[in-house]
Amino acid sequence: MEQAMRRHFFHHGEEALEAEKKHCHWCQIRTFATHSRYPITIVNTEDDTMIQPNFRFMDDSIRAHDIKPTRKEFLTGCECDEDEDCQYSSCTCLQDVEDDSTDDDDDNDGSSVSEEGTEDEWGNYVRKKAYAYHSHGARAGHLRSKVLASRNPIYECHTSCACGPNCPNRVVERGRKLPLQVFRTGNRGWGVRGTVDIKKGQFIDKYMGEIITAQEANRRRAQSHIAQRKDVYLFALDKFSNPDSFDERLRGPPLEVDGEFISGPTRFINHSCDPNLRIFARVGDHADKHIHDLAFFAIRDIPRGEELTFDYVDGVDDSDMDALDPEKQKDMARCLCGSKNCRGYLW
Ligand SMILES: C[S@@+](CC[C@H](N)C(=O)[O-])C[C@H]1O[C@@H](n2cnc3c(N)ncnc32)[C@H](O)[C@@H]1O
Fold first, then answer.
1. Model pLDDT for residues 153-171, shown as the tens digit of each residue
2. Mean pLDDT across the chain, nearest whole number?
3. Which segments does the entry list as coiled coil (predicted)?
4. How many Cβ atoms are within 10 Å of 140's Cβ, its own excluded?
5. Counting atoms of ligand 1 from 1, which one is nearest the CA of 336?
6. What's the pTM value of the predicted model, to 2 decimals?
7. Is position 233 annotated as part of the catalytic site?
8. Atom in ligand 1 nearest the alpha carbon of residue 335
9. Residue 124 dihedral angles phi and psi, to the nearest 5°
10. Pocket test for ligand 1, best of 271, 272, 274, 335 (most atoms within 8 A of CB)
11. Which of 124, 273, 315, 323 has the greatest number of C-beta atoms within 10 Å?
């Protein structure tokens, strides 16, 4: 680690080393557009281990050649005149929001949240807020508690919309706004932490990787030398999968994201049975539901330096009690999250 770091800092300014630079993780993260404001750092104070050399840092997912972009004529966006309008149920980007009922007091950020067409106590018409975020004060742009506690998808405005880049409903679209550190843990390989305090509801980053078909994902599972462990890097984009959908791309087996060899820092986030993050499906253009984003948000305040974790089996019923069966335990991976409510096994 020390040697590779010295090589990077003292030699990778030289032109002749292009081939070597391509494989240097520090050079890869330096190319990120956000590098100067929100850098990714890599540290190892535990041992001499390096991140595997065949891993490549990227700041967005890449689509496999056989995954065609949606045809232009199917792309649609909202036609809101003012950016501010994109918080309300009248914004067409929010037409599929499932639960846009009034929010709880805990989330009251001082703005009006009410049923559409109702009047407030002063007789003013109040529009129904439908977007997922707080709009005012210190929590502006943070996910509301009600959404955080749900497994609902997040619908955002995007490049085909009439609203501008500063529209409040473009939090994931605007990208990561936090410096993150990939660090060597004492017992679980690499992990990730924030180098600043993180607030409940704050967007962390997307899970990135190669977006591939289900067939290709299965081929990679079968080929992987870590066999069933390959699953830990493959995320199915199945939030909108529906055998009855009129969109054939939602009827078939979903696309998957493989972050094992090409990904961003979130690929190094470890599991905890008492996690501080959760993944949400995020949609921009409604014609791209089959290729939705996977966005990490903080589910509680996280002080700087605390390891970021999510529950690898969040929402999956583990009631078959395999973890109590000594025979099955032999094939299971022991969980080292150290939390009080640890289930004992990862899978
Ligand atoms: C997605 S990777 C996370 C990054 C990984 N630590 C690394 O060094 O590349 C998942 C792997 O990390 C390890 N891991 C993650 N959470 C763990 C936990 N709570 N207990 C034990 N191992 C864990 C397991 O080896 C798992 O297969």
1. 999 999 999 999 999 999 9
2. 89
3. none
4. 13
5. 20
6. 0.92
7. no
8. 20
9. -85, 145
10. 271
11. 273
